[in-house]
Amino acid sequence: MSTEPRINDRIRVPEVRLVGPSGEQVGIVPLAKALELAQEYDLDLVEVAATARPPVCKLMDYGKFKYESAMKAREARKNQAHTVIKEMKLRPKIDPHDYDTKKGHVVRFLKQGDKVKITIMFRGREQSRPELGFRLLQRLADDVQDLGFVESSPKQDGRNMIMVLGPHKKKTEAMAEARALADARKAERQGRTPGSDAAPADDDAVAEDLVTEDAETEAQDAPAEAPATEAEAPVEQPAASQGA
């Protein structure tokens, strides 16, 4: 069934209780009169209370009303916080590098305002040493105590040992901080000038370019030399006078 209200010609009652565009009470009028007023004001006749006797109708711009309602619902969903429980699984004899990686995930979840369920998985003979898992959980709780607290103390559940960490920060606060950080990064990117990200030139390269430029300038300012001939012509001696 459609949840949208009936509008204009879809309203099938002889008379309605009419509400004006500004919320004023017009009173009980025939449907034809209400439709005539809607056409006169260039608005829609919208049934806002179908179960009333007679039904309550209002004069409004139904397209604008639907748009504003959709925007309000979107904003409400945007600010709505859902509590999520993340899960992280570890082994009693976990490698130090793997432990740091798992702890990083737990830190990220707590910063996002989510709860974290830590599960220690025992296998084989490890089940006879539950103190290994307990110490590991206590270590993890101490490492992230600035971001979260132990909401559910470690307890044995079959082959597993479980502990739940809760965040100090509420989900709504984490979401607000994340949006503020995203807006700041966006503003920073938009505020950059073109070419500002270019890396500075190397000092040696700059010096080499200057030397090359000076050499080219000297070559342009120097006078042009006459081309050298292949062989110089011999100088002719004047002939001796006959009377000498």
Short structural summary:
The protein contains 6 helices and 8 strands; from the N terminus they run ββαββαβαβαββαα. With 244 residues, it is of the alpha/beta class.
Number of helices: 6
Largest sheet: 4 strands, mixed
Number of strands: 8
Strand content: 15-25%
| Alpha-carbon Rg, integer | 43 Å
Fraction of helical residues:
40-55%
Q: Low-confidence segments, ≥5 residues, pLDDT <50?
A: 193-244
What structural category characterises the helix and strand content? alpha/beta
Apparent shape: elongated
Summarize the helix and strand pattern as letters: EEHEEHEHEHEEHH
The CA-CA distance between the termini, in Å, is 143 Å
* Widest sheet, order of strands: 2-1-4-3
Mean pLDDT: 78
Protein architecture, described:
This protein is α/β, with parallel strands linked by helices. It is built from six helices and eight strands. The radius of gyration is 43 Å and the shape is elongated.
Give keywords:
4-stranded mixed sheet; 8 strands; 22% strand; 244 residues; alpha/beta; disordered C terminus; 6 helices
List the helices and strands and how they pair.
Layout lengths: L14 E5 L5 E6 H11 L2 E6 L6 E5 L1 H18 L5 E6 L5 H16 L3 E7 L8 H14 L4 E10 L2 E8 L3 H21 L11 H19 L23
Parallel strand pairs: 1-4, 5-6
Antiparallel strand pairs: 1-2, 3-4, 6-8, 7-8
